Amino acid sequence: MKYLLLAIFLLPLARPATAQTPPPPNIILFLVDDMGWQDCSVPFAAQKTKWNELYRTPNMERLAAQGMKFTQAFANQNCTPTRVSLMTGMNVVQHGVTSWIFAKDREPEDQSRQRLQSPAWRLNGMATTPGDTNAVYATPLPVLLRQAGYTTIHVGKAHLGARGTPAADPGQLGFDRNIGGSHIGHPASYLGIDNFGNRPPNGPDSRAVPGLDEYWGKDIFLTEALTQKALHTVDSVVQAGRPFFLQLAHYAVHLPFIADKRYVQRYYAMGMDSTEALYAALLEGMDKSLGDVMDYLEKRGLTKNTLLVFMSDNGGLSDVRRGAANLNQYNSPARSGKTSGYDGGLRIPMLAQWPGHIAAGSTCGNNVIVEDFFATCLALSGLKKPAMVQRVDGQSWLPLFAGKKAYTNRPITWHYPHQHMGRHADVYPFSAIRQGSWKLLYNHTTQGLELYNTLTDVGEQNNLAASEPKRVKQMAAQLGKALRSSPVGMPVDKATKVGMGYPDGVVNKK
Amino acid sequence: MKYLLLAIFLLPLARPATAQTPPPPNIILFLVDDMGWQDCSVPFAAQKTKWNELYRTPNMERLAAQGMKFTQAFANQNCTPTRVSLMTGMNVVQHGVTSWIFAKDREPEDQSRQRLQSPAWRLNGMATTPGDTNAVYATPLPVLLRQAGYTTIHVGKAHLGARGTPAADPGQLGFDRNIGGSHIGHPASYLGIDNFGNRPPNGPDSRAVPGLDEYWGKDIFLTEALTQKALHTVDSVVQAGRPFFLQLAHYAVHLPFIADKRYVQRYYAMGMDSTEALYAALLEGMDKSLGDVMDYLEKRGLTKNTLLVFMSDNGGLSDVRRGAANLNQYNSPARSGKTSGYDGGLRIPMLAQWPGHIAAGSTCGNNVIVEDFFATCLALSGLKKPAMVQRVDGQSWLPLFAGKKAYTNRPITWHYPHQHMGRHADVYPFSAIRQGSWKLLYNHTTQGLELYNTLTDVGEQNNLAASEPKRVKQMAAQLGKALRSSPVGMPVDKATKVGMGYPDGVVNKK
Fold this sequence. Notes:
The structure is a homodimer. The first copy, chain A, is of the alpha/beta class.
C-alpha cells in the first residue's frame, strides 16, 4: 500500500527522456560527516602520509581504482553550509547558511562572549517557500531530479533545516523517502541497543536519530543500519526503467565517538590512543558501508549505469576531541581542521565512479567544490529547462569525468563570519577565495590578509601577501565583490560598533 | 540586603546549645562524582597499586596524613541512591530510590529491550511533602542541621529530585544556599567559555549547569568555579558563632571528560591515552579544590572546629568510556565498576579530618556506608529529639573517629533491580548484603548467589557459595528480610511474567 501510494505520487511527474533515449544514470552521493582528507588509506596528498598507513578503508581504495580521485576537492568549514550547497548548487557566499543550524531562529552557538558580533545569517537553513529571511529559498536538487523522473531517497543525516521549520524534514525538500534524517547534526548514540538515542528522558534537544525503530534494542551500529535500510529501500522502491538518486549521508564519522565493536579491537591492539581508535573504527565501519553499496550495485548489475560520488562535508576534526597526540595535525600536511579557514578545514576526500564515463584509476587535480555536485546532477538529468529559483554557482564535473581540464581559473569563495567555540589560533571568522593554487584568506578579527600558493605550500606556512601585492589586490577585489552580493554581511566589533570591512577595502586603506 | 534577609530567616531557628556549650563543629562534605577507590595517589587497598602511582592527588594525601583513612567504605552502585542516603540516613533498600533519576515520573533508561521488567521504584527521588508514591518522603539532613543552628550550603551537583519536582531544587530540601545544583546528574560542559552548557539551543534536557552566570564566557573550569563560589559563600554567609554545613558536591569526575587545561598536558606528556589523560586531569583539578578548601580552613582558623569528610558517590567507571587499555580493570584489585554489584562498583575512597577528635594519619578498617554520614551529622548536631519522619539506618562514625572498633558485624544491604545500558557481564540487576568481610551477591537475572570473603579475596574471584551453604542461607535470609521491607520489589521476567524471587526463597528451593 505504501508503495502503491508512492507510485501514484510519482506517476504525474514528467519524464523528459523519450522512449528511445536511455534513462539518465542513477546517482548515489555517499556523504561522510566530518571526515578529513587524510582519514583513509587512499592518499589524497602528493605523497602517502602516516594517516594513509594508519586508517583502513579498502573500499575507498577499490573505488579509487575503479574511478577518479580528486586531489583538490573542497567543502565548507562545517556541515550545514556544505549540505545546503549540495542541495542548491549555490556557493555559501550566495546561499548565506554560513554555519551549522539547530532550532528555528536560534543561534546554535553562544555569541555573548565573542569580540565580534556575527551579522544576520540564514540560521534556519533551507526554506521550502519564500518569506523567511532567516532561510535560503531555493529549489532543492531532489525536486529537480523528480522532474527528470528520478526516485529520490535520503538516508542518514540531513541537517538542512532548523528544528521547527518544514525543511527539517527531507521529505519536504523533494525526497520521496527519508530514512533517519531531521534537523539534528549528530546522533545521540550510534548504538541500536541505545535505540540510537531514543530513550527517556528525551527532550527536543536530544539528538535522537528519528525512525529506524526496527533496529531499536538490536546489537547493530548506526552506520550498518542506515546501509541496510538504504539498499533495501532502493531495492523495494525503485521501479524498473526509472533512475534513482540516493543520498546516503552517514552520521559517521562525527562525534560522539562510540565504539564500533566490529572494528575497534584491531586499533586498540595496535596500541592506538583510545579516542583515535574509536575514530579509526568509525572510519572502517563507514568504509564497510561503501563496500556494501558497491557490492549491491554489482549484484544488481547497476554499476555501469550509476554515478557513485564519495565525499565528506568538511575538513577533519583536529582539536583535542579527536585525541591529544596529534593536536592540530590530524589533517597534515594541510593546516588546522574543521571550522578553520585553512585547508585542513576545507579539503575533503572525493572519489567518483561511473564505468564508461570515468576512466578507472584516474586522477583529477582541478579545483572542485561541493556545489558542483548539483550542477553535475542537473547536467546528467537531461532536464532542458529546470524550473528553479536560484542561480547555480557550481560547475558540472562532466568534462572532468571525461579527463579534460576545465575552468581551472574559476574563483571559489568561502564566508564564515562566526567564531566557533574551538579556540585554536587557526580557528577564527574568515572569508577566503581560491583561484588555481592561490588562496587569499581574510581574518575578520584582525582584518589581516594571508596569501598562499597551495601548490608549493600545501601547509599554508608561507604567507606571500607582502611579496605579491598585485595578486592580493586582485583577489581581494574579487572576494570583496562576491561578499557584497551575499545576504550575509561582515561581523561588527561589539566594542567599537564598527563593521569589520570587506577585504578589498582593507587593502585599499593600506 | 540578601544577607540581611538570610539573617532574618535564620533568626527564629532554635539553637539547642546553651551559651556555655561550644557550638557543634562545622561540617564539610566534599563529595566527588564517579570517582573510584583507586583513582588517587592515596592507597586504599592493602598494597599500593599502579593507579596510586598514576594519579596525582597531593591534597588527598595531605588529608589522609592529617586525618583518618577508611579502607572499607561503601556507596551504592550509582549516584542518586547514594545522594539520597546521604540526605536521609536511609539505606537504599529502605528509601527505594534504587537508580539515577531525571524527569518526573519518567524512567531514565530505556527498559523496552531488557529481559526483566524493573519493579516500581522511586524514580522521582526525594519529596518535600508526602503523597508521591514515586518519591521518598523524608526529612533531609540540612533541615535538621538548620534546627541545630547550622547555616546550610549546597554547591555543585544535587541530583536529588527529578526535573519538575520540588526536590530538584536543593533550596527546597533545607539548604539556605544552592549554587549550581538541580535535577541534572552531569554537566553539559565543564568550561566557563561554554557557559557550562548554557547556550542555545538549550532545551530542558540540556544538562546545563544552573547559575554561575558570573563565570560565563570566562576561561575557568567548573571545578574551580564551584570551589571559589563555595568558599566565597561560606565567607559571606556564615555568621560568627554559628556552625555551617557545606556540601561541596563536584560534578567532577563524571563524564563528559573535557580537558582541564591546567593539568592535562602533564598526562599527555606521560604518553597516557587521551581519554585517561582527561580523566587524570579531572581528578587533579578536583584535588586542587580539596587543597583550596583545606587552605581556606587554615587561613580562617577553622580547621580545628570543622569535620571535613571526603568521599565519592559510587565506584569508578570501568567501561570503554574511560579508555580502552584497562577495560573493566580501572578499580582493580576490586572487580568491575560503576553500576555493578561487585566491589568495583561499590567501594569508595573516604577520608575524614577533625583535629582533636580524629587522630592524624589513622586508618579505619570498619565497614562504613554513605548513610552513616547522616547519622554522624545528627550525632554532632546536639539535637536531642530531631523532628524527622524516617527511620535512620546509618550509624554514627563518632566511635570510629575515636579509634574504636564498632558494629563490626552489622549487615549492609544493596538493591539495584535495574539493567544498566553497560553491557559488561559483571553489570546486572542485583541485591547484596555484606557482613564483616563476607558478601553475598544475588543476581536477579540468573537467580544465582555468589559468596565472597573480601578479606582474602578482594577481587571477588572465588565464589564460596557451594562450600559455605550455612552462611549463604543465613545471609540470604537476612537479605530477603530486608528486601521484603523495601518499597521496591523484585523484577519480573517479561516473557514468563514470573517475579524473580527473593534470595532466601531461591536458597530454600534448592
